[in-house]
Amino acid sequence: MDNGLWASWYDIDPADEAEWLTWLHGVYLPKLLQRPGIAWAAHYRNTGGGESMRELHRVAARPDEAVPDGCAFLLLVGAPSPHTFFNPHVLDMQETAEDGRWLGKRRGLRHEFYVEETRVDGCAIEHRFPGSTSAPAIQFGAYRMRTVEAELELSRWYSQQRLPLMSRMKSCVRTRKLVSVAGWAKHGVLYEFSSLADRLADHEQPHESKTLDPQAWTGKITSNAVYPPGSPFVGERIWPPVR
């Protein structure tokens, strides 16, 4: 069971990156996985996605208030429930001064805690066996909708179009629609893919290209969404290593 999800977006100084990754992957994440209730953890590097994602990042509506803008890396952690992360609070998990020193190096840090609303498996579900982490490649969108009417249309779109589409997609491992229990965004969606190349050919080019088309249903949904900086995030998994 992994109906709870903790997501952390952040940047790191390039001068610290190599040592940071060695510490995070070799010390912090193995220790985190020993914590009762933690099901899995996965760390991703932002690759930017294809042309459709770059254009969406350029024109997407952004929050009026200040929201942390880190987006170079994304850490995902799964648990049976979002409450697993709060008793005790994972953000208080700092056992040594060295942990505190390294965790303090993150810049533009933003945390979100989600509960799963629903999920569908895609044709590549064999890449996601019980007890495993999220897939080698992901697209993660975090956002709010502008109005209650847009919220209702969002649910209709997911139910009638997007989720059925993802369930039939050859490169899709799994898609999870999420709702935030703590954090800036109200909604989250985690798309898992067999690889970045498969995602580009199978998902971005034929489908995400419609995100800015005002006549397409997808485009109408996007035009009523407000995204924090760096969302949607497209990345490849760097820990655990992809075999």
Short descriptors:
alpha+beta, Alpha-Beta Plaits, eight-stranded antiparallel β-barrel, 243 residues
Question: What's this model, at a glance?
Answer:
By secondary structure, this protein is an alpha+beta fold. It is built from six helices and nine strands; from the N terminus they run E-H-E-H-E-H-E-E-H-E-E-H-H-E-E. It has helices at 17-33, 51-59, 97-103, 148-167, 196-204, 217-223; strands at 4-11, 40-46, 73-79, 107-121, 137-145, 172-182, 187-193, 225-226, 233-239.
Description:
This is DUF2071 domain-containing protein. It comes from Steroidobacter flavus. By secondary structure, the protein is an alpha+beta fold. Helix content is 28%, strand content 30%. It has six helices and nine strands. Strands 1-3-2-9-5-7-6-4 form an eight-stranded antiparallel β-barrel. A hairpin with a 4-residue loop joins β6 and β7. It is globular. The protein starts with a strand and ends with a strand. The mean pLDDT is 94.
